[in-house]
């Protein structure tokens, strides 16, 4: 997986840039948009904890288990969130797309769909992954619907899997898209974004 190194992925709506401490101020403004850290069923950094979260992700990237991105709107060059390749297994190779959040004002704008199109395309077409994984809380119905909308299949539920910020244990839904399913997923995302679905 020599191609799995910091890089920029660019679309019409978003640009995924390598995460940097220089993005801290913009990410703080983005997370304040909708006060996303108040969602009890997911772990989104608070404004005060943003620097620590950036440092955590960069440390995991240095260790080889994560590749972290900042999501930037192409329309106004505003930072709107974060996403990653995580739980990287170079021996397969396999990645999970996760630890993703976007400012509330960006929801429904197509930016998340295009981010997934860029990340999945790179994973399947450049990294050669046979499958890409997604995980989310059983209670995060919005996230589950979005993942299932991609065409991802539910592999199973990990019961009492992760301790959340309030100390409770969450059940984690594990989904995946395989390389064989990628062409259909790509067409679905392109159709949703109003792009040509015949190409490639």
From TrEMBL:
<feature type="domain" description="N-acetyltransferase">
    <location>
        <begin position="15"/>
        <end position="153"/>
    </location>
</feature>
<dbReference type="GO" id="GO:0016747">
    <property type="term" value="F:acyltransferase activity, transferring groups other than amino-acyl groups"/>
</dbReference>
<keyword id="KW-0808">Transferase</keyword>
<protein>
    <submittedName>
        <fullName>N-acetyltransferase</fullName>
    </submittedName>
</protein>
<dbReference type="InterPro" id="IPR000182">
    <property type="entry name" value="GNAT_dom"/>
</dbReference>
<dbReference type="InterPro" id="IPR016181">
    <property type="entry name" value="Acyl_CoA_acyltransferase"/>
</dbReference>
<dbReference type="Pfam" id="PF13302">
    <property type="entry name" value="Acetyltransf_3"/>
</dbReference>
């Amino acid at each position: 997986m020599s191609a799995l190194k910091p890089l920029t992925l660019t679309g019409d709506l978003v640009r995924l840039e390598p995460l940097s401490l220089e993005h801290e101020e913009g990410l703080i403004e983005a997370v304040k948009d909708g006060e996303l850290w108040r969602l009890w069923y997911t772990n989104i950094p608070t404004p005060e904890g943003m620097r620590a979260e950036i440092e955590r992700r960069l440390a995991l990237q240095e260790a080889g288990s994560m590749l972290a991105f900042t999501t930037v709107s192409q329309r106004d060059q505003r930072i709107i969130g974060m996403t990653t390749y995580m739980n990287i297994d170079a021996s397969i190779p396999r990645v999970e797309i996760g630890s993703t959040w976007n400012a509330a004002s960006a929801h429904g704008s197509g930016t998340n769909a295009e981010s997934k199109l860029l990340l999945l395309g790179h994973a399947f077409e450049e990294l050669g992954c046979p499958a890409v994984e997604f995980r989310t809380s059983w209670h995060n119905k919005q996230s589950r619907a979005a993942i299932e909308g991609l065409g991802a299949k539910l592999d199973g539920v990990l019961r009492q899997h992760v301790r959340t910020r309030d100390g409770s244990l969450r059940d984690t839904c594990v989904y995946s898209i395989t390389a064989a399913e990628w062409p259909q997923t790509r067409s679905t995302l392109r159709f949703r974004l109003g792009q040509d679905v015949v190409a490639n």
